[in-house]
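Students often ask why inverse folding is considered easier than folding. One informal answer: many sequences map to the same fold, so there is more than one right answer. In these notes we will look at a single instance of the problem. The structure comes first.
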């Protein structure tokens, strides 16, 4: 993987910015507390978001932390090991019918999650909270896909996930991951009988030129829809192995790692991962002021399917099917006077 910076990307000639740069807690507390007559008042209760209704982004952060701390106090939020590589999941079927954008948006909203992280502050030693990034459900039983860099923090004390309608669940365990492709599959801890809306994972790579939609959380602007097209397929060759990416023209930014990219049938064709900023000229020392282009890279859905259908993966491991018209990229490749700065969008 071409990774040199896990948050905002380096200002050097070549860095990497994931789409999930961990956001700082909101500057204005969504659940303020104060004092009356010298008596300390309890924090205000934050109400859950309502499907189809507008919201203050700070309220979503406040509600997720409020409900997450209840789960943390009940010992339901905990650190988990990321060890398993493959699992078998009863995946949601992909639809064949072309859907209206309104229907695609409704499906994406219902199955896209906000992930929050509890972590130990190195200075204060207190357990703090911040939104981590996004993810999406691929099974009604609470199986979630996101990026590995979202949860691979040694200071983490556990993750919680919130749906668009305000249901908050602890992350129980990691059931599969691929460190080269930067993919992580999580299992939520659901109460008995709970079923959640989920999205289908497309089997085939989306062709260049195909229309796509992204449902993501750019810099804590939650549940934002952007539109675009598939721009190209590429491979990044590194010492650890090959990672596959699909570039799209739909916008996303930090806070969006792990969010879904959908086709016209409402199936997931990609997972938001990183951006590459191209500058005309930069010596690695001065500020980069001449930005020419930002390439938006997502992980193709067929990569994820290899992790969640282990029997099929083991059977086909010797002869995996790459996407069509794949272009090979290497670290530092340049064409003409351009500088490439890659950045994660956590």
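Output (designed amino acids):
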């Amino acid at each position: 993987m071409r990774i040199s910076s896990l948050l905002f990307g380096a200002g050097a000639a070549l860095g990497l910015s994931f789409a999930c740069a961990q956001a700082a807690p909101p500057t204005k507390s969504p659940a303020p507390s104060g004092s009356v007559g010298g008596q300390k008042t309890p924090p205000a209760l934050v109400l859950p978001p309502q499907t189809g209704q507008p919201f203050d982004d700070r309220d979503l952060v406040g509600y997720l932390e409020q409900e997450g701390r209840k789960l943390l106090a009940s010992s339901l939020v905990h650190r988990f090991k990321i060890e398993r590589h493959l699992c078998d999941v009863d995946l949601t079927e992909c639809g064949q019918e072309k859907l209206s954008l309104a229907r695609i948006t409704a499906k994406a909203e219902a199955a896209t999650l906000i992930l929050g992280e509890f972590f130990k502050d190195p200075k204060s030693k207190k357990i703090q909270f911040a939104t981590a990034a996004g993810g999406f459900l691929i099974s009604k039983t609470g199986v979630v896909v996101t990026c590995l860099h979202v949860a691979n923090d040694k200071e983490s004390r556990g993750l919680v996930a919130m749906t668009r309608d305000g249901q908050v669940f602890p992350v129980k365990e990691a059931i599969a991951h691929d460190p080269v492709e930067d993919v992580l599959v999580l299992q939520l801890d659901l109460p008995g009988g709970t079923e959640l809306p989920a999205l289908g994972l497309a089997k085939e790579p989306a062709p260049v030129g195909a229309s796509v939609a992204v449902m993501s959380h750019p810099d804590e602007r939650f549940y934002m829809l952007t539109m675009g097209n598939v721009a190209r397929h590429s491979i990044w060759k590194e010492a650890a192995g090959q990672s596959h990416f699909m570039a799209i023209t739909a916008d996303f930014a930090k806070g969006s790692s792990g969010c879904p990219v959908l086709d016209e049938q409402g199936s997931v064709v990609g997972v938001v991962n990183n951006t590459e900023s191209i500058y005309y000229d930069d010596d690695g020392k001065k500020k980069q002021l001449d930005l020419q282009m930002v390439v938006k890279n997502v992980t193709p859905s067929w990569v994820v399917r290899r992790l969640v259908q282990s029997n099929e993966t083991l059977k086909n491991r010797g002869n995996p099917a790459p996407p069509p018209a794949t272009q090979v990229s290497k670290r530092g490749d340049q064409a003409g006077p351009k500088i490439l700065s890659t950045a994660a969008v956590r």
